[in-house]
């Protein structure tokens, strides 16, 4: 179970040199850092045995939220727990309970898929035999037996994703976190991933907690029992797809998403204008 409560995160982003032949740019001086409020107030409750989708447009704050969940940096405010363990105070324990597939798959190119998976298992404290047995089991689940003993260099996007996912799942974590997992995948690879995730959240697959981020509506409609709509750094609506359709008063999910995500963005803009006036 994953519980993200009211997290926020601001970054200081340094601008480039001013364009043109100003004295500052000639001297190589850079402008002052700009503050970017990547996440303002996001909450997500993901129980066991459910696929929870984080649905948002580009730049909505999904990846930043998942990076905080993965302990890459701490939220400025709010809290995150994994199976009741706080990521901020017990990151090792919390991380051991998660399998994370980030946006960069970062495989070792000289190792085979099997070796990549086993290596991660060893890092998680598994015996080599147990990690190897698990690599074989995951290769069957993810339909990647034919590449198991091939070096990762030269793998296609789909083959890289499957290997990275198998690596993330090697220690059989109770919680699975995927950032835009179908990016760059063709229809067959997307279907195979969908099937694997359905199995993993079923009782036979271990009733895993699964959170994944996406901006693709069809993916959410086909896979998620629960959807959290993220817009402008906030979670602005949540529920099942039928519940969100009803909330927005729309028949098509795309229309419902646009209404829920961007109505709040317009309201926020108006609020900012009012407070600036
Ligand atoms: N390290 C950083 N420094 C500065 N700004 C950042 C940083 N990371 C994210 N941002 C900004 O925070 C906002 C949210 O980014 P984030 O990557 O979380 O969005 P996203 O919903 O995952 O988008 P996408 O679907 O495009 O990947 C964006 O405006 C982004 O430019």
From TrEMBL:
PROSITE patterns given in the database record: ABC_TRANSPORTER_2
Keyword Nucleotide-binding attributed: yes
SMART domains per the UniProt record, alphabetical: AAA
Keyword terms: ATP-binding, Cell membrane, Membrane, Nodulation, Nucleotide-binding, Transport
One term of GO molecular function: ATP hydrolysis activity
Pfam families for the chain: ABC_tran
Occurrences of domain ABC transporter (ranges): 2-257
UniProt cross-references to SUPFAM superfamilies, sorted A to Z: P-loop containing nucleoside triphosphate hydrolases
Family: Belongs to the ABC transporter superfamily.
PANTHER family with a match to the protein in the record: ABC TRANSPORTER ATP-BINDING PROTEIN (PTHR42711), ABC TRANSPORTER ATP-BINDING PROTEIN NATA (PTHR42711:SF5)
Protein name from the UniProt record: Sodium transport system ATP-binding protein
């Amino acid at each position: 179970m994953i519980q993200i409560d009211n997290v926020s995160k601001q970054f200081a982003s340094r601008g480039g040199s001013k364009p043109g032949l100003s004295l500052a740019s000639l001297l190589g001086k850079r402008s002052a850092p700009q503050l970017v409020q990547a996440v303002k107030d996001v909450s997500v409750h993901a129980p066991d045995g459910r696929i929870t989708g984080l649905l948002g447009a580009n730049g909505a704050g999904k990846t930043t939220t998942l990076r905080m969940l993965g302990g890459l940096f701490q939220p400025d405010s709010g809290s995150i727990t994994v199976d009741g363990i706080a990521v901020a105070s017990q990151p090792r324990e919390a991380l051991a309970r998660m399998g994370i597939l980030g946006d960069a798959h970062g495989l070792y190119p000289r190792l085979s898929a099997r070796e990549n998976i086993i290596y991660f298992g060893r890092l998680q404290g598994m015996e080599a035999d147990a990690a190897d047995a698990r690599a074989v089991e995951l290769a069957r689940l993810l339909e990647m037996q034919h590449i198991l003993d091939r070096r990762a260099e030269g793998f296609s996007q789909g083959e890289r994703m499957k290997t990275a996912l198998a690596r993330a799942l090697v220690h059989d974590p109770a919680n699975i976190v995927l950032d835009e997992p179908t990016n760059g995948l063709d229809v067959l690879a997307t279907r195979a991933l969908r099937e694997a995730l359905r199995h993993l959240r079923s009782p036979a697959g271990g009733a895993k907690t699964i959170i994944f981020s996406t901006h693709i509506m069809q993916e959410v409609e086909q896979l998620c029992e629960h959807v959290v709509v993220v817009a402008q750094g906030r979670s602005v609506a949540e529920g099942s797809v039928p519940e969100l359709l009803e909330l927005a008063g729309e028949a098509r999910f795309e229309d419902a998403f646009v209404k829920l995500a961007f109505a709040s963005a317009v309201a926020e803009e108006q609020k900012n204008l009012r407070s600036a006036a």
